[in-house]
Design brief:
- The structure holds 2 protein chains of 2 kinds.
- Chain A has 2 domains: 175 residues, P-loop containing nucleotide triphosphate hydrolases (Rossmann fold); 66 residues, no CATH class.
- In chain A, 42% of the residues lie in helices and 13% in strands.
- Chain A is built from 9 helices and 8 strands.
- A 6-stranded mixed sheet of chain A has the order 4-5-6-1-7-8, with helices on both faces. In chain A, strands 2-3 form a two-stranded antiparallel sheet.
- In chain A, strand 2 and strand 3 form a beta hairpin.
- Chain B is an all-alpha fold.
- Chain B has 2 domains: 38 residues, no CATH class; 222 residues, Orthogonal Bundle (MetI-like fold), CATH 1.10.3720.
- The chains are: A alpha/beta, B mainly alpha.
- Chains A and B meet through strand 4 and helix 2 of A and helix 8 and helix 9 of B.
């Protein structure tokens, strides 16, 4: 058995928006699962607010790549789930959930079931569901990868606005370098797995508040992109080689 | 969908009327078929009317309904409990696996005489017999339902602050309920089969008893009349199951749109 990760060591400062990029199979999701406390490291330590993490990280919310809303609960009931699990009174949970649905732009959709919502709307419900209990850390695993380009840009801007307001610590995993730069303060590059580790940390000194569409046109954006891609490209190629395929062969197929 | 159903209704009724008329005509005096073996629709209708007019059938209907409901509730309850425990405990599931497979493969009718010995001729032996039929359907569906729960749903709910007990209530049981409900028609149907077959094999009341008594005296009219009442009873039970299913699965894609359309 190969370890998914080796030599991974980094710190996220409070209120920082950190993006992690890396080739497929480099253990990006494993890092998030460790930070969430869903996995325990076979060696090494995970600290949350200075304390070793031994169970589920109670400071953190997790936005998954997949649809994780409970299909048998309405949008409102899904958002109320966290508060009810935290033993809030029902009334307060419902009021607060309604407020959050309005906040993510879904006022009036309270009684819809997940299958009656579009992919983007379900992500918004999931976002409200994670944020309602007031986590200080938000872990995001390619949350917008399944959305179409336009919905995705809207969601990214909304996420930036929310972050700007509340200054949560965000760890955002993606394979899309442009998305990583447009959103974050710092981009970590992971090596190709197995036995992956952090091979680069690049600060993103673009002005805030940002608009994800406009920030891509900023002259520094190209420069940052070129630097990180120079490093990432080699890893992507290595990942392909490890799988016994070349990108060229992939394109021909 | 609804309009389509009604468009076929004339043809469906036509088929029934055609069959009953053929039966009625061919069994008249000097006809091709001997009414001693096949009875006649008019006589069957008269018998059923008489049963309901005198009220003699009600206690039999009541007994069969009671046995069906009890067999279903007990069988489903045990099935859910066992399915849940075994799905959460792989080692235990491994130990029980061969025996459950053997028990499920065995024709359950052979148990009926044993149950009559153990529980007597009354309601209890029929319930026990029905339970052996219902249990396995519900058990396998619960087991499967809980094993197939999406790991991401569980992790997400954990992250939202759920304890193991919360997970059971908010994720595992609702998820298994989908599977249990999908087998509801089968399991309720089997509860009814259990009740009627049990009565048929030895009892003092119930629809199965009515049919078996008529058969014992070569009263074909009585047999067919009993079958008619049983058929209508089955349809009513099935409609009730459909209604319950619609209500409990209102969140599912297909059912909701069908209801609103």
């Amino acid at each position: 058995m190969y370890p998914a990760l080796e030599r991974v060591s980094f710190t996220v400062t409070r209120g920082e928006f950190l993006a992690i990029v890396g080739p497929t199979g480099c253990g990006k999701s494993t890092i998030l699962n460790l930070a969430a406390g869903l996995l325990r490291p076979t060696s090494g330590r995970v600290l949350s607010f200075g304390a070793p993490l031994l169970r589920i990280n109670r400071h953190a919310a997790y936005l998954f790549q997949q649809d994780v809303l409970l299909p048998w609960k309405t949008a409102l009931e899904n958002v109320m789930l966290g508060p009810l699990l935290h033993r809030w009174p029902r009334r307060r949970a419902a009021d607060e959930a309604r407020r959050w649905l309005v906040r993510v732009g879904l006022g009036g959709f309270e009684s819809r079931y997940p299958h009656q919502l579009s992919g983007g709307m379900r992500k918004r419900v999931a976002l409200a569901q994670s944020l309602i209990v007031g986590p200080s850390i938000l872990l995001m695993d390619e949350p917008f990868s399944a959305l179409d380009v336009h919905t995705r840009e809207l969601m990214e801007n909304d996420l930036l606005a929310l972050w700007q307001e509340e200054r949560k610590t965000i760890v955002f995993v993606t394979h899309d370098l442009e998305e990583a730069i447009a959103l974050s303060d710092r981009v970590l590059v992971l090596a190709a797995g197995p036995g992956s580790g952090v091979i680069g940390a690049h600060p993103v000194a673009l002005p805030r508040p940002r608009d994800v569409t406009e920030v891509r046109l900023h002259h520094d954006f190209r420069e940052i992109y070129r630097t990180i891609w120079g490093q990432l490209r080699g890893e992507v190629l290595r990942a392909y080689a490890a799988q016994g395929r070349s990108p060229a062969a992939e394109e021909e197929a | 969908m609804i309009s389509r159903r009604f468009r076929l209704l004339p043809y469906q009724l036509g088929l029934l009327v055609g069959l009953v008329l053929t039966w009625q005509v061919t069994t008249r005096k000097g006809g091709w078929v001997d009414p001693f073996f096949f009875s006649r629709p008019s006589e069957i209708a008269a018998r059923v009317t008489q049963w309901f007019a005198t009220g003699s059938i009600y206690r039999h209907l009541w007994t069969t309904a009671l046995e069906t409901v009890l067999a279903f509730l007990v069988g489903a309850g045990l099935g859910v409990a066992f399915g849940f425990v075994l799905a959460r405990n792989r080692a235990l599931a491994g130990v029980f696996d061969p025996y459950l497979k053997i028990a499920n493969a065995m024709p359950r009718v052979v148990l009926a005489p044993i149950f009559t010995l153990w529980f007597g001729l009354g309601v209890l032996s029929k319930v026990a017999f029905g339970v052996t039929l219902v249990f396995f359907i519900v058990f396998f569906n619960t087991y499967q339902g809980i094993r197939e729960v999406d790991a991401n749903l569980l992790n997400n709910t954990r992250m939202l602050g759920a304890t193991e007990r919360d997970l059971t209530r908010h994720v595992l049981l609702p998820s298994a309920l989908v599977w249990i409900l999908s087998s509801l028609h089968t399991s309720v149907g089997l509860a009814l089969v259990g009740a009627v077959v049990g009565e048929y094999l030895g009892s003092g009341r119930g629809l199965g008893y009515v049919i078996s008594q008529a058969e014992g005296t070569f009263d074909t009219t009585g047999v067919f009349a009993g079958m008619t009442v049983l058929a209508v009873f089955t349809v009513v039970v099935d409609l009730m199951v459909t209604w319950v299913e619609r209500r409990l699965l209102a969140w599912k894609p297909g059912t909701v749109t069908a209801e609103r359309a």
